[in-house]
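Could you please consider the sequence and fold appended to this message?
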Amino acid sequence: MPTSARRSASPRVARAWAVKVLSLYTGAGGFDLGLQKAGFTIKGCVENDIDARKTIQNATSWPLLDVPGRNPGNILEVEPEGILDRFGLARREVSLLAGGPPCQPFSKASLWVAGSTPRMLDPRARTLHAYFKVLEATLPDAMLLENVQGITYAPRVEKTREEAVDLLDAELARINERHGTSYRAQVLRIDAANYGVPQRRARIFVFASREGDQIEVPRATHAEQPDADQERFVNCWDALGGLDAPEFDEMLLPTGSWANLLPSVPEGKNYQWHTPRGGGEPLFGWRTKYWSFLLKLAKDRPSWTIQASPGPATGPFHWRSRKLGVQEMARLQTIPDSHKIDGSYLSGRRQLGNAVPAAIGELLGLEIRRQLYGKRVRKKLHLIPELRDDCPAPEEVAAVSDQYQHLRGDHQPHAGTGKGPEARRRKRREQAEARNLAAAQVRFEAERMREETTPPLPYAA
């Protein structure tokens, strides 16, 4: 799969009509808000989560797929042609098929918890197959698929299961052979902070166009140490300073056994502050916990990645030693305040943790219009926060609570890559996985065959 871009030798003539988006796995709509800001028209959304559907319905006028039954927007329960019919779209009419199938099967967080990610054997990965079914039915000008970096990782056990990277190439080759198209996957690696998003969020975007054109990712506009043509990183104070106050909802108080340790962690630090190599108390061994454990935002830096389903001690936490509010997380994702997120706090965090920063949708939308359609577009992103010059000093750090003093001691650091207890457990799990993969693959393929042969439910007229 090519990872470098080339400019199309013959840019196509810009269309006289609106560039149309069909959105799959829309979620809270961050990706599509950006595309809309870049001049695209959202012609249809497919989303299954109940609260995310309410967010779309209440905050936008985008058409939303309804399928009768328990799961009204389940892409697995309707034929792709039914999706096009529902939105009044014809084959080759859609400009861009956009979306991010669930990333949990390929995520780093899943790797930490389980030791090895389930990837294509995870039932949630079936949505990746569904994406390509819709692609074949639609044959859009281009596709843009977002996911975590793990989607491009090679399999741990060679030739024992279908990996996402193999599926991407195989599905595009199959579609090309059937329809005379020239889709060719191009991997775009983007860290959102490099383009003005107040969050370090590294993601993969897979782009392919029907005519085989590719696009170039523009040079970073922001940097930690900017040159003459760049600005500094947009930081947390730029995004959240207008919301900062010493009083906050009690719902945002941290919970769990480590909650009272958080005030003793300085801004921009994590649990490693309380190790022999940090500056606090020797409560833990160096690198013996996961990175986001007790991780706290710093006002003068971008946020770390907002996670969808964190544990009670998983950051990033606010510099006031509390959880981030839904509006704050939305701002770190460059989602406008006017785009209200529906549902409970946990639902809002899940929707926002799974979202694409709206400004990255804007960036890619503008570049597609410029490079694929030959349009003259602006370079400045409208969805990124303005830089501020009034960032206050870091918050004062509290002393370690008495309840944690028993942890003081001579803690050994992590033994090194591949040598720690978790690595040994992971190796044993991988050995067991290798013994069971053949049977798992048979079950997975049988389930997929049943899905393909089971008549789908009719779609709503």
